Amino acid sequence: LAALAPVARGVASSSPVGAGASTQAREALRRRNLAIISHPDAGKTTLTEKLLLYGGAINQAGAVKAKGEQRRATSDFMELEQQRGISISSTVLAYEYQGYKTLILDTPGHQDFSEDTYRTLAAADNAVMLIDGAKGLEPQTRKLFEVARLRRLPIFTFVNKLDRPSLSPLQICDQIEAEFGIRCCPVLWPIGSGDRFKGVLDRRTSVVHLFARGARGAIAETVAELPLNSAELREMLNDDELHAQLLEDAEILDELAPPLDLAAIASGDITPVFFGSAMSNFGVQLFLNAFMQLGLPPAARAVEDGGAGAAADFENGAIEAGTRVVQPTHAEFSGFVFKLQANLDPRHRDRMAFVRVCSGTFEPGLRVKHSRLKGKELTLSQVQSISGNERTTLDEACYPGDVIGINNPAGTFAIGDTIYTGSERISYSKIPSFSPEVFALCTNPSPSKYKQFAKGLEQLLDEGAVQRLRERGDMDGGAGAAPILAAVGPLQFEVVQSRLQSEYGVDVTLERLPFAAARWALAGWGAVEQATADGKLLGVRKLEDTWGRPVLLFPSEWKLNSVLADCTTLLQLRPYAVA
Ligand code: GDP
């Protein structure tokens, strides 16, 4: 552990990257972006706010929430969010800290929006798993951990709320290792919890940081930084039991914990673990500093080779040897769309595509090619830099790791689209969808509002909020028949309903359909017809997706399993299909 510390600290000198490298390489290397994954209520908002506070991006705690409320007040969509106390829309927060440019990609915590989180994680280079110290792992922590794993992201763990009585830190590490099969390397180790939470040991330096409780919102005061083995520490702690426990823990960890190896973090074999309290500011700054040193700068990304390779990459959670990748140092610009959102600001009807820059340099006015549209050229002049709810016209160059907002009025961009410059076509591996689990018939009871209905629905479908399925051959987009919507969770339906109402003035009714699961039959309609003729698909509804591919809806898991057992080879059933 100690061996790495000098190297890591060396990197954090005022300029993170040496002179001599190209501007692009230097800028890419000083980018650190992260997405926080957690179960609702673990303290994500609080931690985000504190990271901004310590990063100097805001100068008073409470600013993030205040902004959130301002925004909520301007839109009914946000009103839904407020009523439910959940976070629906992901945003990006960017700031400069210690010579690094940090981007926090915000992810919704509620499980019905896992898909949004999934896409955001596709744009992130690091994940921070936030755990409530009293609760340990919770359902959504588990689900999102798996997603981060699938994305092969380095995972940092912050165990929060140590100012409350907590599970023992060893117990938490055990739980993570046993359930996730990732080894824990504690970096900050807590001294006590609840009222007896006194501070943390930084295992890289063997220095103990003792804190004083500050007033809420104030930056916590470090009372003392003392060597672990000093007599002063024992004196200042003034709690022999805690002191003995600390020495014992330190010894156990030195023996059992794996070394803090950067390569092992990058490959997801170990997770650096931090303990603290976001609300009382304990350990937040130490975490932030460590993250600058240990977090991964923008990494190489897999591109499609036109074959099955890219999709396989996501399913196995591995970039196979021989997969083509684009390095962030590649001289030509490339990036991909990971999120679309309409009407971010209801005063200006807008549609925005969020693009993660992966290589090269982006400058306003850049002429790029659109990979899905067969290299069609576009000039990107109206580009926004995004941080929080503020969007300003981009007037500076952007580098790998950055996120830019491109106006998307004509719906030119879809989720997963790649844009690039240069003669070599680049197409990043697609972001697969979660398999839908809830289905509803969406009817617009007022024919006079058909236009608004069609337009609103089209935009929300573009955003990937829900998917539309229809009867086979009904290509008019549902002008006659009501479309069937498919989503991962019912809250997604509520958002669609609420946004159609507030943004497009259409009151739709959604009638839930009694299906429990969907599978794409990649073998095509011929195979579906054959299975039908064989009597294998009784009670299974056959629809098609936007691309005309057969989608089967199953009334129960039981029926699904029986079809899977009988017709897997024939139908080639998959839980989702990549666009
Ligand atoms: P989110 O749902 O994950 O964004 O969680 P919030 O940041 O909104 O926090 C949920 C609740 O936990 C709020 O009441 C916070 O004040 C509280 N909270 C957050 N961090 C801490 C902490 O370190 N200690 C304690 N005691 N409470 C915290």
From TrEMBL:
It holds the Pfam family RF3_C. CDD domains: RF3. The keyword Protein biosynthesis applies. It is found in: Cytoplasm. Its main location: cytoplasm. Keywords: Cytoplasm, GTP-binding, Nucleotide-binding, Protein biosynthesis, Signal. Residues 29-299 form the Tr-type G domain. GO terms for cellular component: cytosol. GO terms for molecular function: GTP binding; GTPase activity; translation release factor activity, codon nonspecific. PANTHER family: PEPTIDE CHAIN RELEASE FACTOR RF3. Belongs to the TRAFAC class translation factor GTPase superfamily. Classic translation factor GTPase family. PrfC subfamily. This is Tr-type G domain-containing protein. The lineage of its organism: Eukaryota, Haptista, Haptophyta, Pavlovophyceae, Pavlovales.
